[in-house]
Amino acid sequence: MSTHTLDVKGQLCPIPVIRTQNQAKKLAPGDILEVLCTDPGVINDIPAWCRINGHTVLGSETKEDGKLIIITLEIGA
Q: Which pTM value belongs to this model?
């Protein structure tokens, strides 16, 4: 298991989800992916994508007065 970071700051929907999907395809089951975002739509979009695709959202947090959103997910099988 390893941890990876995907920076999609400044990208608007649907690009953060598409780039998350593309990165997830390169990772192994059990790997952790931290997605750094600025589009508030990802708070709903990435968890929905995870549910559909068998990945697990481990957590989400906002920083920089809500301008930075970090979603951490575990890649499923």
A: 0.95
The catalytic residue among 6, 13, 57, 70 is 13
Domains and CATH numbers, the chain: 3-74 (3.30.110.40)
CA–CA distances in Å: residue 71 to residues 12, 53 = 15, 16
pLDDT in tens for each of the 77 residues of the chain?
899 999 999 999 999 999 999 999 999 999 999 999 999 999 999 999 999 999 999 999 999 998 999 999 999 98
Q: Is 13 a catalytic residue?
A: yes
- Token digits of residue 42: 């990802």
CA separation for the pair 13, 45 (Å, rounded): 8
What's the CA gap between 67 and 49, in Å, rounded?
A: 22
